[in-house]
Specification:
By secondary structure, the chain is an alpha/beta fold. Helices cover 39% and strands 14% of the residues. The relative contact order is 0.14.
């Protein structure tokens, strides 16, 4: 850690001398947590804790009404937002209110709930497991599907008294919805419409830097990265913020995002890069990353492969991991996908589309990359307002 801080300090000193790293104005929210960001923009919020069946304690944030609306007893349509891999509930509030889906939908008259999956820096509590133990980190997106999402939806339904809620998932948030709604009919009945942004299920055609995890061999990966968390180090976020705030080399951040999520730099608000870098990455488990590497290699949507027929028999009572059969999901689903998205690749999305039994809409935006659906400059027009229209029409029927 100290060598990194010293390096950053020296770069800053010499860069300032050479006028290469002149800092851009810093956003006040750059180092705020979720609650602080919501309050900063003048919205009321509540923080609750959801306890999963296997004992993980997940914080969930509620924005009960819009900024200029007082709370009232009239029930509002309830919307649950679920984030992607190594992110958190903060992804929905990183832009000013008109550019953040969490605030946008609250101002449109909806009761907003922002969920967190186990493993990000906000969700590292357990009823009895030590977060520093290997046992705590023995999970992948199977557990998000089996435990986290059902516990989150059940909590929201019980707290609001609503029988059904609307669900919006981005990336992994969409993936766990496909898995959960296909395998848990009771949960699926509690969802009015499933909105999938940058939808991921299979990863056969993923490209860019993320493709490199295909070559992660479990034993070597655990030797190099351990068997706990990954992408959690705050030094990484600090260094990213430092680079992204330099006028001369700030475009490096945009180029790096292109390698990670696809090409659409003109839709990125570069003045907010310090805020984005302060909230990503926020961690996941090594086992989850290994699960994604398996998904890239196999090209199918299935449970975690424990590495042998015997171990798979122990976990699943069958020699191979069970498939998540998206066709079994009957929840009405609307999707938005991007032509420049290298994580939710258009070929994978096309294959996914063919397996959705109740697809009510699929909008393809040719120029969109993976993050445009949540932080893109024109996302309010291309995505957010259309979600409002879907919900409003559904409410009127």
């Amino acid at each position: 850690m100290w060598w990194l801080l010293r390096t950053v300090y020296l770069i800053h000193i010499f860069g300032s001398i050479l006028c290469l790293f002149k800092p851009k104005p810093r956003n006040p929210e750059a180092n705020m947590n979720i609650g602080e960001i919501i309050s900063y923009w003048g919205y009321a919020y509540e923080e609750h804790e959801v306890v999963t069946e296997d004992g993980y304690i997940l914080p969930i944030f509620r924005i009960p009404h819009g900024k200029n609306e007082s709370n009232n007893l009239v029930p509002k349509p309830v919307v649950c937002l679920q984030h992607g891999l190594t992110l958190s509930a903060s992804i929905w509030i990183l832009n000013p209110p008109r550019g953040s889906l969490g605030f946008f939908l609250a101002d449109a008259g909806f009761d907003m709930w922002l969920g967190n999956n186990r493993g990000n820096i906000y969700a590292r509590k357990h009823v009895y497991l030590d977060p520093d133990s290997r046992e705590f980190w023995a999970f992948s997106y199977d557990e998000h599907i089996k435990y986290d999402l059902p516990a989150t939806i059940d909590f929201i339904v019980n707290k609001t008294g609503q029988k059904q809620v609307y669900y919006v998932g981005h990336s992994q948030g969409a993936l766990i919805a496909f898995g959960a709604f296909a395998t848990n009919p009771q949960l699926a009945q509690k969802i009015k419409i499933n909105f999938a942004l940058g939808p991921v299920a299979t990863l056969k055609y993923v490209s860019g830097l993320f493709r490199l995890i295909e070559y992660m061999e479990p034993t070597m990966t655990k030797i190099v990265f351990g068997e706990k968390d990954i992408f959690s180090n705050s030094d990484v976020r600090y260094f990213a913020q430092f680079l992204c705030q330099r006028e001369t080399i700030g475009t490096v951040c945009n180029n790096l995002l292109t390698l990670l999520v696809g090409y659409n730099p003109q839709n990125l608000n570069e003045s907010r890069l310090d805020v984005y870098a302060g909230q990503a990455p926020l961690g996941t488990s090594v086992q989850n990353l290994l699960h994604y590497s398996q998904a890239i290699r196999t090209g199918v949507f299935q449970a975690y492969d424990w590495g042998s027929s015997a171990l798979n028999m122990l976990h699943y009572s069958q020699p191979t991991p069970p498939l998540y059969k998206v066709k079994n999901m009957m929840v009405p689903t609307a999707m938005w996908s991007g032509g420049q998205d290298i994580l939710a690749n258009p070929i994978d999305v096309k294959n996914l589309e063919a397996n959705i039994s109740n697809l009510i809409c699929h909008k393809k935006i040719d120029e969109y990359s993976h993050l445009d659906f949540v932080i893109g400059l024109n996302a309010p027009k291309e995505v957010f307002s259309e979600i409002v229209t879907f919900i409003s029409k559904d409410q009127s029927t």
